[in-house]
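To assess whether ligand presence alters the predicted conformation, the chain was also submitted together with 5-O-phosphono-beta-D-ribofuranosylamine. Input:
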Amino acid sequence: LKIGVLASGRGTNLQSIIDGIESGEITAEIELVISDNEDAGALERAKKHNIDSCYINPADYETDQDFEQEMVNNLKEKDVELVVMAGFMRLLSPYFIRQYRHQIMNIHPSLLPAFKGLHAQKQALDYGVKVAGCTVHFADEGMDTGPIILQAAVEVKWDDTEERLAARILEQEHKIYPEAIRLYAEDKLEVIDGKVKIKE
Ligand code: GRF
């Protein structure tokens, strides 16, 4: 399975996927890491593991579509079959989604459909929920919507800060994202009526 990763930040989810591949748990290879942030730690991690990477500057493109076309060109050139968004902080347009229907995964640090959008961990704290968590899903045209693949829950402690809760959730992200990609690589995921069936 040929994977392309889109990442804007430090890349710890990317790292967990790299580790899963290098340990043999995931039968796949990362063909390309694309970032819209030239300082992204994710680019450093790719280089360290001899994975092709590129910084694509959105400001270099007239429109969002031109920017996305550039990303798609790079991904198609590498025959990428699964696009993995790992802390990619831009919304993909319907144009991009159409290129890769049910071939784009995203991870979000909440138990969707609760707390979509930014600062999901803070949203959970502010609401006062006792259970939080993270979700891996197929991306669709919406924001943090699309068929849910895997979720993991964590306890919210009464004195939690956003940072402590985010760290507890991140530990689970690093478990469920590689697992979701392993299932996909082994062709064990099927989307039926907008719901994901795991054939394991
Ligand atoms: C993670 O919390 C993920 O849920 C969210 O952005 C963060 C990415 O972290 N989408 P990293 O760059 O993978 O460390």
